[in-house]
């Protein structure tokens, strides 16, 4: 059990979204955590993507510090910082083992990841398969 990791799952239509966070209070120990996400009784998704906010993703403060922490950023610097704050989307590999979907990834300390699985809509009742 990871005392610093929390997860929330939502389903809307043909999409499942899982939010994973890895946070702790400042005086508590924290480290990167290997996540093994298993969805039981699941049909195979048509695809999965991951979005991250951590030291390497969607982190304009790191870019601001790398360019010298300007007190009065130029318009060009503001564009750079806005670009650095964008939350990108990347394909996320998964395994489908019978009726279990398994996804493995790492969540660094003080970070979050959102995994989205998209499914084909089920055939209407009475439709031949």
UniProtKB/TrEMBL annotation:
<protein>
    <submittedName>
        <fullName>Glycosyl hydrolases family 39</fullName>
    </submittedName>
</protein>
<keyword id="KW-0326">Glycosidase</keyword>
<dbReference type="InterPro" id="IPR049166">
    <property type="entry name" value="GH39_cat"/>
</dbReference>
<keyword id="KW-0378">Hydrolase</keyword>
<dbReference type="Pfam" id="PF01229">
    <property type="entry name" value="Glyco_hydro_39"/>
</dbReference>
<dbReference type="GO" id="GO:0016798">
    <property type="term" value="F:hydrolase activity, acting on glycosyl bonds"/>
</dbReference>
<feature type="domain" description="Glycosyl hydrolases family 39 N-terminal catalytic">
    <location>
        <begin position="16"/>
        <end position="86"/>
    </location>
</feature>
């Amino acid at each position: 059990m990871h005392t610093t990791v929390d997860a929330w799952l939502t389903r809307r239509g043909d999409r499942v979204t899982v939010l994973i966070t890895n946070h702790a209070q400042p005086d508590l120990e924290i480290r990167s955590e290997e996540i093994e996400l298993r969805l039981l009784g699941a049909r195979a998704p048509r695809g999965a993507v991951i979005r991250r906010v951590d030291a390497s993703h969607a982190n304009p403060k790191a870019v601001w510090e790398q360019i010298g922490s300007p007190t009065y950023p130029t318009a060009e610097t503001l564009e750079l910082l806005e670009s650095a704050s964008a939350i990108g989307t990347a394909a996320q590999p998964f395994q489908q083992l019978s009726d279990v979907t398994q996804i493995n990834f790492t969540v660094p300390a003080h970070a979050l990841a959102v995994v989205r699985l998209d499914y084909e809509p089920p055939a209407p009742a009475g439709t031949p398969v």
